[in-house]
Design a protein that fits this description.
This protein is α+β, with helices and mostly antiparallel strands. It contains one helix and three strands, in the order βββα. A three-stranded antiparallel beta sheet has the order 1-2-3. Bound molecules: zinc ion.
Length: 58
């Protein structure tokens, strides 16, 4: 389980929007409005906040 990078209280869960596209949102919604459309984006953001990760390592 991946904890939310924004509130650090919820965890990220996959869901589909009305168009059938994958969305990744925080389990604490609507308290936390964190949302992304790909795990790559989330990992890239997390890496930027923590420590540099070279491309291809994930
Ligand atoms: Zn959250």
């Amino acid at each position: 389980m991946v904890s939310c990078p924004q509130c650090h209280m919820g965890y990220l869960q996959e869901m589909e929007d009305a168009q059938g596209n994958l969305r990744i949102a925080c389990s604490e919604y609507p308290v936390c409005r964190f949302e992304s459309d790909s795990w790559e984006t989330i990992y890239a953001d997390a890496a930027r906040f923590r420590h540099p990760v070279s491309p291809g390592q994930i």
